[in-house]
Amino acid sequence: MKAVVADPVGGPENLQLMDLPTPQPGEGEVLVKIESIGVNYIDVYFRSGLYKAPETPVKLGNEAAGTVAAVGKGVVSVRVGHRVAYAMARGSYAEYAVVPERLLVEIPDSVSFEQAAAVMLQGMTAHYLTHSTFPLKAGHTCLIHAAAGGAGLLIVQMAKMAGARVIGTTSTAEKAKLAQAQGADHMILYTRQDFVAEVKRITNDAGIDVVYDSVGKTTFHKSLDCLKPRGLMVSFGQSGGAVGEIDPLVLSQKGSLFLTRPTLANYVSDPTELKWRASDVLNWIASGRLKVQIYRTCPLAEAAQAHRDLEARITTGKLLLKP
Ligand code: NDP
Question: What is the pLDDT of residues 139-193, one digit of tens each?
Fold first, then answer.
């Protein structure tokens, strides 16, 4: 089968399309024939070596949708031919992948492989951030950085479903329009405007309840200045660079703030929790309540260009690869 690996880790040019043996499912595992692959920022971290993988060359991709091609011993929840999707199993930049049964969910008939591959990772992320890390309700105001990104557009929509007021940031006016079309109440161009001053103006100096910050280095400290006393800083990514060390005293000085650095794995480790998040997300897509904006679908062989576009900030919504 064809698969894209990082050999060695480094820049996008290190992504190689290789012929590898088709993997075979072991006990509790399922072989999926992949129809659509989701590209996520975490793939950049594995490709560059920021996140360490035990194998060489490094397998890429954490999300896909496809058809069950074979099942290993003990698998009971899916059969050959079922349409399935998953996130958080590396090796999806390929024609086939072996996936633990517990990570698979069935795709509703009215949801396409592309839609499913586009929402598993970022959709479940948006779900846990808005339902569990900080359960948003009417009366809350949140700040969502990179609001037109893959995760961003989904967080905006789920925050609005919960009845919260949404302030978003993006680097361009075109991106701001996209987030507004998904319900963001106020948009700030954080590359041109002082987002702390803007948040203070929008909230009449009250500040906000929670920040969902996936950008990191360039937004982290200023985001703390946007929070109400005892507000929550959710630092869940670092597309703008790693945050670095933080002195907890800063949280006291800025108003007894809370800080969390969550990751999806800890919010889907329980199978019931995973099914809850995945079925909410897929059912909302099926009913049209949640929209996923697919920016582009590239052939698997063009994974390097997909990474270049993501890192150059030119994408909005979701990038997909087609094996
Ligand atoms: P996005 O589609 O959001 O792409 C990244 C966006 O970040 C860009 O479009 C850009 O938006 C913004 N950005 C700001 N500064 C930079 C920079 N210097 N270089 C590149 N981009 C920059 O990607 P994803 O939705 O896949 O992921 C967003 C972040 O969320 C990543 O850090 C990812 O690791 C994290 N994440 C974390 C999860 C978790 O559970 N902890 C799960 C899923 C994602 P703009 O131009 O508007 O500034």
Answer: 999 999 999 999 999 999 999 999 999 999 999 999 999 999 999 999 999 999 9
Q: Give CA–CA dist 25/97, Å, rounded.
A: 9
Whether 114 and 142 share a structural domain: no
Identify the CATH number of the domain in which residue 240 sits. Answer: 3.40.50.720
CA distance 90 to 5: 11
The CA 75 to ligand 1 mean position distance, Å, reads: 35
Pocket of ligand 1 (CB under 6 A): 40-42, 121-122, 125, 146, 148-152, 170-171, 175, 214-215, 236-240, 262-264, 310-311, 313, 315
Q: Are 24 and 42 in contact (CB under 8 A)?
A: no
Sheet holding 58-59, edge to edge: 15-19, 2-6, 58-59
Q: What is the dihedral of CA 243, 248, 252, 256, to 10 degrees?
A: 80
Tell me how far the alpha carbon of residue 136 lies from the centroid of ligand 1, in angstroms.
21
* 310 and 236 co-located in one domain: no
CA distance 64 to 84: 9
Judge contact between 320 and 36, C-beta under 8 A.
yes
19-71 pLDDT, tens digit per residue, is: 999 999 999 999 999 999 999 999 999 999 999 999 999 999 999 999 999 99
Residue length of the chain = 323
Among 261, 281, 297, where does a domain finish?
Answer: 261
Rg (CA), the chain: 20
Q: Which residues of 9-31 are buried (b: 16+ CB within 10 A; e: fewer)?
A: beebebbebeeeeebebeeebbb
- Ligand 1 atom closest to 314 (CA): 9
